[in-house]
Design brief:
By secondary structure, the chain is an alpha/beta fold. It is about 40% helix and about 20% strand. Helix 2 packs parallel to helix 4 and helix 4 runs antiparallel to helix 5. The protein starts with a helix and ends in a 10-residue tail after the last helix.
């Protein structure tokens, strides 16, 4: 047993345990929570997986059915107390996309950079392509062979969050992919990977891509209605595929605010940092250099006197331009001193 595992178990033993994903969980969040749940069973610890929001995507629902994963809405745990231990996966406490509970956040396992300071007894933050990668590594480091369901679900989470190993991939992701491969069901992976959109979403998808606006390499799409997280992420990915775009922002209504999906293909245009800066004062955001997300509650701008779409556009353009300016200055520190003869 690794020291990391010993520490995790010492924090959880003797308590009721909940594994909490971010709100509106995606395949990486669900596979990570499921993998951790099954990992803990090897040491006699039972844990319930909980979330807030809904499971909006058909492929994610099929994932739950295929692997026999049971997850619960947080609203049913009205009796949760401070003696209950909560482990967050694929998200960190204090950010906008994870709901606060009455339990004690005893641990956090995530692959995103930390943006909001917080305290908990067990932290495992590794910057890599997917949270599923971190959970899968627990099995291999402790010489535990994952079942077909566990291996396949973790591999699916890894594939989805890295867009088939083409986005934000690290050496650890590649290693884990190789280790999971012989234990996973490739036919199931193929089916789940191909079925990413419902027919009912097609109209929203068409309207979103037909209304894309591009400003100096920055692509925007605003859907003035609530759609699934999977669809808004797909729109962001689509915009980035345009040859004229190097940075993409797709956003839509979500609950009482706006949900953002941000993508970058330029190393110095850090999607997480830009999203955080663009939403500063009106919302929260963050993530990786290539992909990020954000949320802006409408209550934060209820007294504001501006056109919302124009304000969002200007905020992101300014944040991107600032990064470009910094990159240009680092490339030529004497640029401002030069004059044209």
């Amino acid at each position: 047993m690794t020291q990391k595992t010993e520490k995790l178990l010492s924090v959880l033993k003797g308590h009721r345990v909940f594994i909490q994903t971010h709100n509106y969980p995606d395949p990486d969040a669900i596979s990570s929570a499921y993998g951790l749940q099954q990992f803990l069973l090897n040491f006699g610890i039972n844990a319930l997986i909980c979330y807030k929001g809904n499971i909006a995507k058909a492929s994610t629902t099929k994932m739950l059915e295929k692997f026999g994963i049971t997850i619960f809405d947080l609203d049913i745990f009205t009796e949760m107390t401070e003696d209950d231990m909560v482990i967050t996966v694929d998200a960190q406490p204090g950010i906008a996309n994870i709901t606060e509970t009455k339990g004690t956040v005893a641990g956090c396992i995530d692959h995103h950079p930390t943006t909001v300071p917080y305290e908990c007894q067990f932290k495992d933050i590794i910057i890599c392509g997917s949270c599923a990668t971190i959970i899968a590594d627990y099995f291999f480091k402790n010489d535990i062979v994952p079942s077909t369901n566990i291996a396949t679900s973790l591999m699916y989470g890894l594939k989805m969050d890295t867009e088939n190993l083409t986005r934000g991939v690290t050496e650890l992701d590649a290693k884990i992919y190789y280790q999971l491969f012989p234990f996973s069901d490739q036919e199931t992976l193929k089916t789940l990977t191909n079925q990413q959109m419902e027919f009912s979403e097609l109209d929203s998808y068409i309207k979103a891509i037909s209304s894309v606006k591009i400003y100096d390499g920055i692509g925007f799409s605003y859907i003035n209605k609530e759609v699934s997280d999977g669809l808004i992420a797909s729109i962001g990915d689509f915009i980035l595929k345009l040859t004229e775009v190097e940075f993409a922002i797709a956003y839509c209504k979500k609950g009482d605010g706006l949900k953002f999906s941000v993508r970058s293909e330029i190393y110095y245009l850090d999607a997480g940092t830009i999203t955080q800066n663009a939403l500063d004062g009106i919302g929260t955001g963050g993530g990786h250099s290539t992909m990020a997300g954000g949320y802006m509650p409408f209550k934060n701008i209820e007294n504001a006197d501006f056109d919302l779409e124009e304000e969002i556009t200007n905020r992101f353009i300014n944040a991107v331009y600032f990064c470009r300016m910094i990159n240009d200055a680092l490339a030529d520190p004497f640029a401002d001193l030069k004059t044209t003869p």
